[in-house]
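Lecture notes, structural biology module. Today: joint structure prediction for complexes of two components.
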Amino acid sequence: MGIPIAEFQARIVREKRERKREKVRNFIEWFNKIIMDAELYEYRYPVKGAYIWRPYGLQIRRRVENIIRQLHDETGHGEVLFPVFIPLEYFSKESEHIRGFEEEVFWVSKGGKDPERLILRPTSETAMMPMFKLWIKDHTDLPLKVYQITSVFRAETKSTHPMIRLREISMFKEAHTAHVDKDDAEKTVKEAMEIYKKIYDYLSIPYLISRRPEWDKFAGAVYTIAFDTLMPDGKTIQIGTVHYLGTNFSKVFEVTYLDKDGTTKYAHTTSYGISERVIASMLAIHGDDNGLLLPPNVAPIQVVIVPIPQEGYDTKGEAAKVEAELKEDGIRALADLRDDKTPGWKFNDWEMRGVPIRVEIGPRDMDKKTVIVARRDTGEKYEVPRQDVVNFLRKLMVEIGDNMRKEAWSNLRKSIHYVSSMQEALNNLGTGIIMIPWSGDEQCGIKIQEQLDASILGIPIDEEPTEQIGGEKDLACPEKNANYWVRVSRRY
Amino acid sequence: MGIPIAEFQARIVREKRERKREKVRNFIEWFNKIIMDAELYEYRYPVKGAYIWRPYGLQIRRRVENIIRQLHDETGHGEVLFPVFIPLEYFSKESEHIRGFEEEVFWVSKGGKDPERLILRPTSETAMMPMFKLWIKDHTDLPLKVYQITSVFRAETKSTHPMIRLREISMFKEAHTAHVDKDDAEKTVKEAMEIYKKIYDYLSIPYLISRRPEWDKFAGAVYTIAFDTLMPDGKTIQIGTVHYLGTNFSKVFEVTYLDKDGTTKYAHTTSYGISERVIASMLAIHGDDNGLLLPPNVAPIQVVIVPIPQEGYDTKGEAAKVEAELKEDGIRALADLRDDKTPGWKFNDWEMRGVPIRVEIGPRDMDKKTVIVARRDTGEKYEVPRQDVVNFLRKLMVEIGDNMRKEAWSNLRKSIHYVSSMQEALNNLGTGIIMIPWSGDEQCGIKIQEQLDASILGIPIDEEPTEQIGGEKDLACPEKNANYWVRVSRRY
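The predicted structure, tokenised, for the full assembly:
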């Protein structure tokens, strides 16, 4: 694990234990229970697909939002806030766009009577474009890059799931950009992908990047690049998308600019989005039978300090001192000094809530001027000299984040299977992602989906096509040669 | 002004000038123009009462939100996030509440067809109460104090104004609390008032605190305490309210707790709100004919550094160095190094955008190892030794915030007039708040409002009744003795 034990004279007092992940297999039940038990989220609100963030959950979410903001700000995106209402007239302008969304749009009217023709935004391209038209005059106004973190609304007809499939997506980060040409727009597509990778890395979430097939791209896009990750039950979940929109929106909204050569041209636009699904994935991927495990980067409490009471030893006083030292150093620490709970009860409770590190202070530790440090990720325990505790924990937090990322990536990679028959595909579908030989033909792709009752995620764009495809036939259309290994999975 | 000139050897090189506030008198026109010119806000969005925050404005707003969060967090409020949808069935439970809001509620339906009975929250008491019922079991769960910063929706029939009268109030901070009894609830009413005072102080906004008359209290409240401030055109604007709700909501939503004595009792609840109107007021109160003046606490750029170009002097390099030093010290500084703008153009542009301090670096300053510091609030200029610049500016920022607060309070106090006839009342109404002798009788109060075409703000609760009321008669009902001086104004 690379903990520099020598440097800190920390002694391992208990070896790594295997994390039990049985309950995680019964995933949705486990997930719904744990977000309620940890008082992170509330799913009993009496409106379908609408839920509540409670303080512990919102503290995590605010940290995720902050890293999202930071990464967008430092790459020249300006944060804006647009209204939730879009006039139907604007929403309908781009014909593919309205076709893609019209079934799941909420309409708004005043007092239940005179209907104004307003909808609640399901996404904001058609709110932004009329303003881009006003803000962009000539090529010096480009690129224009803005983003917002807001609620969007989709009247999902499928069954809804807390934090995963929502009618009010309350943490939708959507970026919208305009450019002089395709080249410049595609530079931003790449930049967006880099931003998203950094967000997932920060949360120790592994991901696959695929180019979505034509029939599954964003309504109105030229193409869509999507990030998926794997849930513990073998289904994938889309956790981010980046769209190149070409001039599809700029043409209908007349978003033009005066170029250097004196001619008026249409801007090329992009949009890219990410939502609270990254938080749902983070909780799902790292949790185990004992509860949550939060990456130290976003844990509201990074270190909990539990005193072991003993006559004649002020372990509570010592715990409070350690808390103060850690806080002084900027570590989010809490000394749990409650008298009406046993240490064992506290251990379990904080494990369940996902606190990544526990410090135990007992009488023997006080005699020896040490503390015990327990890792939530591996279960390892260390004896650490009292004077080293701040530095040791600071290093351990990085180590835990790295280890969580490593473990999650390893699990994802193990769950990808190359198959060359329908039977083999069906056998492996329940456990993760399958790679299927595909001609690239749309009809054959749709057949693959139907025969497997699964979805084509798309052709990988995050790896070289190292696997030889030569000789394979399209799995649904054996008369055709396969040209790609395409990713397929069941999904949320 | 108390700038410790001796300490810094700073020499005043230009005296204070009077700030021109003529345009501010034509207030709404001035306001709408300046928020657009400063690229802070956009009012051309094609939906009535719905507007856009642009990056410069949102940076101010995020700082205001942060101080609001900090003050609520440190007084034990948990931040939550509730859905925007409220089932009509819940919204209608409290009869006064629904009567107060029903005319201005937006209804939502899916796809314009099968109407689900949902509304967009105009305020969240009726969303919170069903959850409070689930979360509160016994007296140890109380007090329960939560808040959220969200959008709320009111289908205003009056004319809307950018940032002032909105259909989507996008920065609504609403706190909701539950308590064992009236005493404990009223402690939180007082705490809320202290929180709000700190927010206004932070933004250098003066305020009056009044107990709203019965006919103007929050729909469903036992009583409402409101904060008002004065706009440059002599109208007041409500910038915060605190409501004691008694058991009005807890009874209809059955929010009960098991008390120590084993009996089940209704919780007493409160709610209190504040919105982007605090930002509108801050901009309105401190601005002048040259544009905005932002309090250093929330200014996205606190110090702009303008080099004065001159052959043989690297004033640009020096400006960049000063910028780096200030940033190093945590001051939000920007060196304006554009070559295609003159220093004079830059001075005007940054003044318009409200940057509170300008540093000028010219060839003579470089020879003398000094810089020129110009205050946006008083127009004073200082010559400051180069090595003192960071400390001088840090002190000056506090001084500017204090001076802005002092000036604004002095303006508010000058605008309050005690009157003892209707004619005198009418003569003074255009310039601010008038104090009117009132019996306290509701019918007489409503007559006062009608005769003056103005509103009773309420009885002061922020000052001792020092003015003798003895002998005065109710202005609208001369047969009655007056018992109070009541505040009256035209208002937004």
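Point to remember: Residues 389-414 of chain B form the longest helix (26 residues).
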